[in-house]
Amino acid sequence: MSATAEGPYVGKRLFDLAVVALVAIPALVLGAACALAVWATSSGPVFFRQERIGVGGNPFMVWKFRTMVDGDNPMFPDATRITSTGRILRRLSLDELPQLLNVAAGEMSVVGPRPTLAYQVERYDDHQRRRLAVRPGLTGLAQVNGRNSLSWGDRIDFDVTYVETQSIGTDLRIILQTATTILSGDGIEGHPTDDPLAVPSGDSPGSSGDGRPDSGDGAK
Q: Considering the domain boundaries, does residue 129 fall inside one?
């Protein structure tokens, strides 16, 4: 089954629900352990929520485990503000585990372009906006081809390629590659801070000024 012209391939939602059902029990146990670790090692909420843009340009609230100290944090992760538990969660991408709730709610897919911020979407050209034709994903083609080391333009190009070529086979391959990427740690460092698509207007690279639309845990 392949992609339609303007949306996901037939059966993608069923595929997402099947994956969620398959991992539900181990994810619940692992998630409880992560939540306990976050609660026990730093003050502040266990979860971090942030508005992101989903399919068709519609906003939704994404869930993550908090990995940075509670408060106003910079757009790009600052190592001095990442907690000891957060460092481990980020290294293993376990901070993204709560997004299975977003998948179950139909706001995200298991595989797709990562959900991005509104001000970045406003800068898309017509080609880049094609990444909004499908639900954002827990992982995607960009995440197994460089991850954070890629420029935002390159990430979006991978996302558009995914939209144009998506299938169940592609999704299964990306899921398997994601496991390898997480274990190797490839691309976990990066976040180019001088990328014009990533930096909020009015802010200097890496700034945490009032022009930044998010706070609390950094963009990822």
A: yes
